[in-house]
Design brief:
The protein is mainly beta. It has four helices and 27 strands. The strands form six sheets. It has a 17-stranded parallel sheet. Strand 6, helix 3 and strand 7 form a beta-alpha-beta unit.
Length: about 450
């Protein structure tokens, strides 16, 4: 193959080769080398890659990852001045430190670099130009790794025991201004960001998706004063198994673009969002939020902290979620009602699905004026809420239903199961209408 000196593209993707031929180093005009998914490839001899001086694209995922020793090293890539696309895998983060040419990293138009997991499997990630998956990273990284972090749009951090304080500034003091997707799992940090006047305003200014999973030491998202710019573009938030987390995110820092929130297995969490002490006038409003999933948050007393209500309600009087379509609340031992009577009724007019399960202190869901405003509701499911006495409570002062009936115009599926104390659906004076009901399930 070494005689094909005019060859521009060489693809061996998915082949059963165990070693890359030394002769490939003779292909000085080669522009693209694809050895992706060559899972049996154990060796790339040293100084082959560095001789491919005109190489523009190098694809090596799901195959060779044993860099160093008698094999190729990451430093060989430093000489590839035309390289524009790099997709590679290493078996240890330390091997990545040999890629230390900041100029090379800055010239890349696309990269996907990852440390192979112990079981060799990797989940599908959103499609971005610059993707970096790291395991057991050392916060005292070299210039090359810092340059990669600075440029990365999609970052996954796993099993980082040496990262003990935060991501900003411990891992990157300048923040992650270009980052759009961040997933942190099984790391030892106590917060995501310790904000101050120098790093807070643009730390995660373009972040769209934030996932924090299986973090036993995490106590807060933001340690310090919350700035308006920290998560100004966040659209999706997922929190999973954070046993020490007590409060979520400041309303000041959360984007109004947020459209999906999922929080599970956070037993100490008392509120998902909270008001900053210096911004008491903030309104609990997420105009684009469509899906809210809250599961196994036993201590949650309200979605927004410091409600001041005598009754623990998920939503307070100023709550406005005009785009919310799906609400799931499961395994909560504190919430007594979803909506207090003084809630801003039109704030939930697009809710379609409401699923409540094993909320042991729940007495009712809300007043007639609330349910009369849920004109898009299609599915209502209540399971094992032991203290639930009625689905709709009596109207209190300030509430009003303009019509003489509560009309569930679009409700198709209604289910109330294994809720032992429920006496009736509603005991007030308004008539109830279900013109499109297709299924009804009542069981105990």
């Amino acid at each position: 193959i070494g005689k094909l000196v005019n060859l521009l593209v060489l693809s061996l993707r998915g082949s059963i080769l165990e070693e890359l031929a030394v002769e490939i180093g003779e292909l000085c005009d080669l522009r693209l080398l694809d050895i992706e998914s060559c899972k049996g490839m154990k060796r790339i001899p040293a100084y082959i890659l560095s001789r491919l001086s005109n190489l523009e694209g190098l694809y090596m995922l799901n195959g060779f990852d044993d860099w160093g020793g008698n094999h190729a090293t990451g430093s060989e890539l430093d000489t590839l001045s035309h390289l524009n696309v790099l997709e590679m895998e290493v078996s240890k983060t330390q091997q990545l430190l040999t890629v230390n040419n900041v100029q090379l990293i800055e010239q890349l138009g696309k990269f996907k670099i990852r440390v192979r997991s112990s079981n060799g499997s990797h989940e599908e990630l959103p499609s971005f130009r610059y993707v970096l998956e790291l395991i057991d990273i050392d916060p005292s990284s070299n210039n090359g790794l810092r340059a990669l972090l600075k440029k990365t749009e999609c970052l996954v951090l796993s099993d980082c025991e040496r990262l003990t304080k935060n991501l900003v500034p411990e891992l990157n003091e300048d923040g992650f201004k270009d980052l759009k997707y961040l997933k942190v799992q099984m790391c030892c940090v106590e917060s995501v960001i310790s904000s101050n006047e120098e790093n807070e305003s643009m730390a995660f200014a373009n972040l769209e998706i934030l996932e924090i999973l299986n973090m036993k030491n995490l106590k807060m998202i933001c340690d310090g004063k919350a700035s308006l710019g920290i998560f100004s573009n966040l659209q999706r938030l997922k929190l999973y198994y954070l046993p020490d987390l007590e409060s979520g995110m400041s309303l000041t820092s959360v984007s109004h673009n947020l459209n999906e929130v999922s929080v599970e297995l956070c037993p100490s969490l008392k509120c998902v969002a909270y008001k900053d002490a210096k911004n008491e006038t903030e309104v609990d409003m997420f105009p684009r939020l469509k899906s809210l999933h809250l599961r196994w948050i036993q201590s949650l007393s309200s979605l927004l902290g410091q409600s001041g209500n005598e009754v623990f309600a998920l939503f307070n009087a100023e709550s406005k979620y005009p785009s919310l379509e799906n609400l799931n609340l499961s395994y909560n031992y504190t919430i007594q009602t979803l909506w207090i009577s003084a809630c801003y009724v039109p704030g939930f007019q697009n809710l379609k699905s409401l699923h409540i399960q094993e909320c042991t202190e729940l007495r009712s869901l809300g007043s007639p004026s609330i349910f009369a405003a849920l004109v898009q509701l299609e599915q209502l499911k209540i399971i094992r809420c032991d203290k639930l006495q009625e689905v709709i409570s009596r109207e209190t002062e300030g509430g009003e239903v303009l019509e003489k009936a509560i009309n569930f115009r679009k409700l198709k599926h209604l289910s109330v199961e294994d809720s032992m104390e429920i006496e009736r659906f509603y005991r007030g004076s308004y008539d109830l209408k279900f013109p499109n009901l297709q299924s009804l399930r009542l069981s105990s």
